[in-house]
């Protein structure tokens, strides 16, 4: 009996130790780990997020002009102007497979999206492709009426993408069957955004549209002052943020389309009014026109800071308080997202697309997906 009591006593004493030993360790605050970015020199780069030091590079057969990399399950996917979509080991840059599309003018400008083991991407050959993410085998293809430079978005089993045939399409993600199409009066290069049952997208017809995501009917439209809307919007806290090619950024009520504020760029450089994709994080809206990127207060539209680059400043990714933006001057600019204070920069051949950031805890961040 005494032996049994002693055994029970030791078990009870050991329980707290076992409990604390089995608890997950607090991972601490997440920080950025690796940055992936493509360049017009035809290379995809993997960079140390803290220092900008190159970890590896992979040379494609053409320039990476607009397709932005995305990482999923340890694989990075990116398109190139050689008409191919590449799948690379994210840790080493070793090629796992490549998928050849039909090519055409502007080639593969679309950025890939990954969902449920499938990669979706558009091509200038007028087609949208669904490709097995593990093997590179095609699953389905849908031909639109013109080039597809827009980047697909996948939400609730539906793929949304625009085409230069002036239409926004919705496809079943598994079969590729068309669910609906929405016709505008201009080409759709912008990448759509899906939020709260609506699809938001701009057109070269100067209008920004909110469309029912399930059936494709228009909820509202907003007419801008610029010559067109070619880049993606951002949605946050019931507000949609957009930029037109007239040098103006807008904040619109996401439900009604009512304008809340607008911001006029003072950029007077060559092609200075050309708007860029808008992103939003932590109460700050990031948008741009030609060589200048602006950080604006999301509630008021007042300017917090600006970044002037040596070329056409493209699209921004914001992760863990850091702002990543490529420019056609060949640099990736990395600054503090709240203040604009520079951290480091990386020089390549010209960076048109988004940077894709993978954090130490494995979170994948890529601005508004595409463009």
Notes on the structure:
The chain is mainly β and about 375 residues long. The protein has 1 helix and 33 strands. It has one helix at about 1-20, and strands at about 30-40, 45-50, 55-60, 70, 75-80, 85-90, 95-100, 115, 120, 125-130, 140-145, 155, 160, 165-170, 180-185, 195, 200, 205-210, 220-225, 235, 240-245, 250-255, 260-265, 280, 285-290, 290-295, 305-310, 315-320, 320-325, 330-335, 340-345, 355-360, 365. A 5-stranded antiparallel beta sheet has the order 3-2-1-32-33, with no helix packed on it. Strand 18 (about 205-210) and strand 19 form a beta hairpin. It is globular and about 50 Å long. The termini are far apart.
Helix-strand layout with pairing:
Elements: H1 2-22, E1 32-38, E2 43-48, E3 54-59, E4 70-72, E5 75-79, E6 84-89, E7 95-100, E8 113-115, E9 118-122, E10 127-132, E11 138-143, E12 153-155, E13 158-162, E14 167-172, E15 178-183, E16 193-195, E17 198-202, E18 207-212, E19 218-223, E20 234-236, E21 239-243, E22 248-253, E23 259-264, E24 279-281, E25 284-289, E26 292-297, E27 303-308, E28 313-319, E29 322-327, E30 331-336, E31 342-347, E32 356-359, E33 364-365
Antiparallel strand pairs: 1-2, 1-32, 2-3, 4-5, 5-6, 6-7, 8-9, 9-10, 10-11, 12-13, 13-14, 14-15, 16-17, 17-18, 18-19, 20-21, 21-22, 22-23, 24-25, 25-26, 26-27, 28-29, 29-30, 30-31, 32-33
